[in-house]
Amino acid sequence: MKIRKAIIPIAGKGTRFLPATKEIPKEILPILNIPMIHYIVKEAVEAGIEQIIFVTSSGKSSVENFFDRNMELEAYLENNNKQKELELIREIGTMVSVTSVRQKEQLGLGHAVLMAKDLVNDEPFAVLLGDDIVINDNPAIKQLMDVSLKNNGAPVIGVMEVPKQDTNKYGIVKGDIVDEKTLKMTSMVEKPKPEVAPTNLATPGRYVLTPDIFGILESIPRGAGNEYQLTDAINVLCQKRDVFAYRFEGERFDTGSIPGYIDATVDFALKDPKTREFMVTSMRNRLKKYGITL
What residue ranges define each of the domains in the chain, with the CATH number in brackets? Predict the structure, then answer.
């Protein structure tokens, strides 16, 4: 079955970005002039997703508004002959169908996904975390969708290799090798200590799931952090049916952290011909100013 819907959980409070996120959702913070959430939605759209389901909390309405039409702004741009800007704004406002559901309590990623059950209905769906940007010509979530299609619609978890000492930051998968990029999963552990981690294959925030995950999410107890972990539900799922882990291609930026946000900003500025020269000059001047040598 074609995957038409994607869940993007954005209910978190963004505390690592306070005080900016006191009034502005973290997902609207820009990488240069484009909000980070735009990159996530764009990836989904380029993969063929037709409907975005935001799992939100209070104060997040501006995220949904960003993907709506702004007729007043469009009229202003048209009246002032700002055609390039007008086309950009119209493209954003028409790129995909967007809806949302409230997560009234932040009880974990598993709980957030469960909130979208009635909107997903009995369909396979994608999950993309709202602060993990992956850049690749072939969208990361599309790579997982293709693997799922190849394996009769099976769930597929996107993974990447991480340093062994960082396994306690991620869900870590274990499984049997299918090919150089694919594992048939046997288990999944949420944030294991490096000395007990089964592999260094981590789940940074891309999933293709089937609706049977919802029944599991409704039955599992709270796990790590006293929250309902999607990792725990997937672990149960892979005992019941084939679940695959796939090492997707692409450069990933964890823009939910200050270091990751800075890294993405610098990278995107150097990548863009319009800002590259300025960025290089600025970095040289700042390094000199602070007496930093490389």
Answer: 5-256 (3.90.550.10), 257-294 (no CATH)
